[in-house]
Amino acid sequence: MRQLTGQDDNFxxxxxxGLPQHFTSVTIFDQSTAPGGLVRFKRIxxxxxxxLHLSPLFRSKLLSAPLDLDRPYLVDDHxxxxxxxxxxxxxxxxxxxxxxxxxxxxxxxxxxxxxxxLWELYVIxxxxxxxxxxxxxxxxxxxxxxxxxxxxxxxEMMAAIHDLSPEPRAVAPEAPRxxxxxxxxxxxxxxxxxxxxxKPGRLVALGRRILGAERAKKRMDERTxxxxxxxxxxxxxxxxxxxxxxxxDAVSFDFAELRAIKDALPGATINDVMLAIVSGALRRxxxxxxxxxxxxLTCGCPIDVRERGERGKGGNVIGFMGVDLRTxxxxxxxxxxxxxxxxxxAKADAQASDVRIPMELMELIPGGIMTLAVRVTxxxxxxxxxxxxxxxxxxxxxxxxxxxxxxxxxxxxxxPLVPGVGLFHTAxxxxxxxxGRMLLGFHACREMMPRPDIYRSCLIESHCALRDAMLRGxxxxxxxxxxxxxxx
Length: 488
Fold this sequence. Notes:
The protein is 36% helix and 20% strand. The chain is of the alpha+beta class. A hairpin with a 2-residue loop joins strand 14 and strand 15. It starts with a strand and ends with a helix.
């Protein structure tokens, strides 16, 4: 049993606004590589059942403190039902990419049942009309609630159910286990009182750190401090309430090509490349509707701030930095260079600001106050997030993955929308066949982006323009990547 942190609990508070706070992975598997060339649903259930003990989160559910005096706890689910969490469905014919994205968006828009373990897995068949996907393939869509894990800890959980070869690895059977009984409400009340008594001392210590961080920021030259979070430019993704309806889509890029773009600018990172692609896409998309602001847009980037002793413990340990997307610049190469410089400034600002401070402040603020603050700011239309969009980069394993013997051939991730930010990007690396890929998925409010196919085309055009600007004259083809453009 463990208690949610303040940052974990914040994701539950956001869900009260009608913004489901789970994130989702979608992976397509070719079952022809499985033993016998077929993966039956019963086999999937058997595989999952044999590996539930590899992560305690599979069987853990929330237990609220009496009167919500304290943050919830994770406890064993006495009535765990694997078949509730694993669902088997199929696309209607003809089963193309657009239908898959629509189905995923609708499933993803539904919140998880907070009274059960906070995950669901959908096996989706009928994908035979998706280009570059082998006949008979199926998709695996897994929803995981953000209040119990972040992207890093989710990757650890996903590793428990995947293998590195078509032959599933041998997993030691679960040792005899006794289900832990939940604490009595009186115990929970006593713990809540003790936690409340500890907070004043911790708040004083945190106040000293905040003052130290402010002094460090003042010592920095103003030109080297991140400026992205200091101004707010509104777009269609930020100036209205987020509806309950969603759209999703994704693009797949050749990782070697992205690396070549990165290497063309000394010191640049893959994340800089992805920010430049998103920046170019946003510029192209908003220009089509005559809505491009003259000032630059900004992007919020979650960063892992776990310390060594926090690895493998689940939960959220996330900081944020704001990066100027320089959408005010027309030239794609010039924009990439400016974004790289802005990212360096944002990292320096994050280091000076101590990005763990907001996370630890959430630890000390009572949940009821957090809920009230979230609802009041939403009711008055106050935008709580100083970013126009979000991009998270989740490095995947540098090897080919298999599920029940089936080989992964495609996929993408979906991050949750937050108040004031109706567009979220998730970049995740993967090995497909022998080729490294970068899978860029996006998730948006349907009212803000009624035509996700237009934005998808903008992402592809942005990638091609950036490639041509940075790699011109190296002999590479000037046409769009065939896999990336096949579904535009």
